[in-house]
Amino acid sequence: MRWYRLSWVAAALLTTALDAQWRDLQGTIVPKISAEHWFNTDGTTPTSESLRGKVWLLQFFATWSKPCMRKVEILSILHEKYYEHGFRVIAVSDEVRKKLELDMAKRSPKYWYASDPKNTTQARFVVGGQDLFVPRYYLVDAKGVIVSNEVPTEDRIIELLGQACVELEHEMPEALKKAERAFRDGAYGDAWQRAGKAGKSVVPIVQAEAGFLQDKVVQYAAFVKATSPAWLEGKRPEQVYAKVLLLSLQFEGLDLAKWAEKKLKEWDKEPAIKKDKKAWRLLGQAIERDLGSVGDDYERKRAKEMYQKVIDRHPYTRATDFAKLRLERFADIE
Q1: Each residue of 16-44: b (16+ CB within 10 Å) or e?
Q2: How many angstroms separate the CA atoms of 28 and 251, rounded?
Q3: How far is it, in rounded angstroms, from Cα 183 to Cα 167?
Q4: What is the rounded distance in angstroms from the CA atom of residue 214 to the CA atom of residue 306?
Q5: Which domains does the chain have, with CATH numbers?
Q6: FRET partner for 264 with CA separation of 20 to 30 A, picked from 17, 204, 245, 312?
Q7: What pLDDT is recorded for position 140?
């Protein structure tokens, strides 16, 4: 009889939980967030609007949930490690302030978290009630769009932060069109040089926008250099050679390119790199053609053909894997 009663209660709780569902929301603008009290925010009140331009992870959690509490350490590490680059972890619980503060003090979280006993935030993320399984995650990009429902890897965080760094929110004057196109195509060194020349204009708006574009390049180069240890750590040269090769060409003329070229020279002696030397050389030529096209259809077509040569002549190499990724940029070319 006791077993029957316990089973009935468990079934009832499960039914209640299944009546409520988390909304997927991927690809949509994140709903507003609010709470009665925030912790660790230095007196500021996070909102969906104030977080525009930043990448952030929203977690719904409860201190009684072991899976939630197991994530405190990793979320703290991510929040602190990428805070200066614009990443935030924001956790919301429906527990009252005093209980939440007491329970979380035992774990010493470093990220922002909040007491929202009225479920004002959670209500915007659910359908059909409030009894839901936790933790639940929403990863939000710099534009305020939800991109996934998982705790991101460091590579994913860096990718999204990088996208935020190179986002141009407005059109440039005609005198800077080629510099703008080079920037959007990832030819940052070329964009920096073109903007420098255009900045000599006597037209104030051109001078201002040229300086803005050059600052964008410098800031992004600093971000890449600062985050490089995260994506280099524990990796073999052949795993990241293509990425560093791309950087050496993207930032040509800047200090970051010199750093990348130095790494490449060190790795050129590695057996795994030497055996595919021809593939890497051809890939480098394809990237150069690609970055130098600045929207020219003929040059873009030639770049596409060169990437295809890498794939055809050097299958089953890391260079080919990267060439396939770069080919996605040429979907509009027959």
Answers
A1: eeeeeebeebeeeebbebbbeebbbeeee
A2: 33
A3: 10
A4: 30
A5: 14-152 (3.40.30.10), 163-330 (no CATH)
A6: 312
A7: 98
